[in-house]
Amino acid sequence: MVDVHTHGLPRYLPNFTNRFGGSWPELVQTGSCTADILVGGRHFRSITDHCWDPQRRLEDMDADGVAMQVVSPIPITFSYGLNHEGVATLSRIQNEWIAGLVRDHPSRFAGLGTVPLQDPARAAEMAVAIVRDLKLAGVEIGSNVGGRSLDDPALEPFFAACAEESALIFVHPCNVLGADRLSKHGLAHSIGMGAETAAAAASLVLGGVLDRHPGLKILLAHGGGAFLGLLSRIDRIWECLPQAGDTSDRPSSYVGRFYYDSLVFDPDALAALIARVGAERVAIGTDYPFMIAERPAGAALFAAGLIEAVTTSVTSTTATTILGLSQDRVGSHPR
């Protein structure tokens, strides 16, 4: 089984606040196996060494039957609103750490880098280096760039570079819509992230990004969030409002242009996703190693009782295809 949605970061990060000013992510050790992520000195999340220790990850992977994890940065480190030179440095530190993890365990880990999207030209250059030099499969990006949608014309160089390099783009929600209204009850994580991913996917479609770059490989987190559930309404608005999109085809016709992780937590919802987009467009994702992660990996998929060909595609074939991996690269740790 290949898990395309996991996160990690180096155990130590430099102090960027003293150098660049602003509210930077900082990792503060609270014990031999624990740390807090602070942003601008304020607590963001407590984490364990599963975020940075490959042996701890491998133990959990073996217990869950996961042959390979795709490790990507923790989204709070995107830092799109901060100094672009500093973010480029922060990105390189993380990218090199992930690349080292992959080099040390090539059959167990693949990786996605991060780039300073607020500087699209630099982001494009770094995306090329991530694939060519660091040998990672692509990049993880946020669902917006400091409030700018992903169809912002300034981002064209980045998307062009990713298409040229056949780099996978993993779109993860960040800076969610309506965060001030969703601060209670965990709604920013439940409703906010789902709506944010839907807005990002719709922007890529309606803004013509997928038309201009037909070779793009885009993976949506959390089963696409609310995107599929809202498609009929998106279609209707597109039909009724001339200004609703720059594409000549119905928005719902693009559903098969995206890939989706399986992280919907419910067997029926996952079966519906697979039925709508096809098993070849869905891959296992868990959000490891965080508290809300699906454990064991693939729990909803196996509970759905789907035929073996579908399960095989979701557990491995889709992932190896979009990552550009041969089957013999993946370690042999069956469920």
TrEMBL record:
Record domain Amidohydrolase-related: where: 2-305
GO molecular function, one term: carboxy-lyase activity
Example of a GO cellular component annotation carried by this entry: cytoplasm
UniProtKB keywords: Lyase
GO biological process, one term: secondary metabolic process
InterPro entries for the chain: ACMSD (IPR032465), Amidohydro-rel (IPR006680), Metal_Hydrolase (IPR032466)
Gene3D superfamilies referenced in this protein's UniProt entry, alphabetically: Metal-dependent hydrolases
Pfam family, one: Amidohydro_2
PANTHER family xrefs: 2-AMINO-3-CARBOXYLMUCONATE-6-SEMIALDEHYDE DECARBOXYLASE, ISO-OROTATE DECARBOXYLASE (EUROFUNG)
Name of the featured protein: Aminocarboxymuconate-semialdehyde decarboxylase
Organism of this sequence: Mycobacterium paraseoulense
